[in-house]
Amino acid sequence: MYAVMVWGLMVVLPIVSIGAEWLQTPGADILVLIGKWFVFWAVGVRLLTAGLKQMLQPAFTAKGIFHIEDPKAFTLVVELGISNLAIGVLGVLSLYFTGWTLPAAVYGLIFYGIAALRHLRTPNRTATETLATWSDLWAAVVLVVFVAGVVVGR
């Protein structure tokens, strides 16, 4: 279930949303659509749901991603969950407040980019860690294309 949710929110739904809007709006700026829908799905919905999971079930992240068995670490995972929830809400609301798209994309780029680099340095990754690694890397690449396109276009 975790893998379906991650790939759905990080790949399938953003691409389907971009394609649907692009088909409905001939001549739409593809860069704007990439930013709009990847920020909504990959930064917004994905981090919002991750934040809720981390707040409600911190053991999943502590044990499954970080290999920390000590329940004392759950407090830190809950704090991470609060942060993910907050940025997730920003990403979701960027669909309605379009001026929030670029700041949310920059946050997502930094978050996913550094997380991916840290995951890549982990030897003997589990399947969950490998999924996190590649989905984080994918999000970082898409977001760097969007952010760079906006910055260069200004």
Q: What features would you describe in this structure?
A:
- With 154 residues, the protein is mainly alpha-helical.
- Helix content is 81%, strand content 0%.
- The protein has one domain (2-153).
- The protein is elongated, with a radius of gyration of 16 Å.
**How large, in whole angstroms, is the Cα Rg?**
16 Å
Counted by DSSP, the helix tally is 6
- The percent of residues in helical segments reads over 70%
Major sheet, described briefly? none
Order of helices and strands: HHHHHH
Strand content: under 5%
**Number of DSSP E strands:** 0
The unreliable regions are none
Span between termini: 41 Å
Structural class: mainly alpha
Overall morphology: elongated
Number of structural domains: 1
Overall mean confidence score, pLDDT: 94
What's this entry about, in short?
81% of the residues lie in helices and 0% in strands.
List strands and helices in order, with pairings.
Layout: H1 2-24, H2 30-56, H3 58-64, H4 74-93, H5 101-120, H6 127-153
Helix pairs in contact: 1-2, 1-6, 2-3, 2-4, 2-5, 2-6, 3-4, 5-6
Entry keywords:
154 residues; mainly alpha; elongated
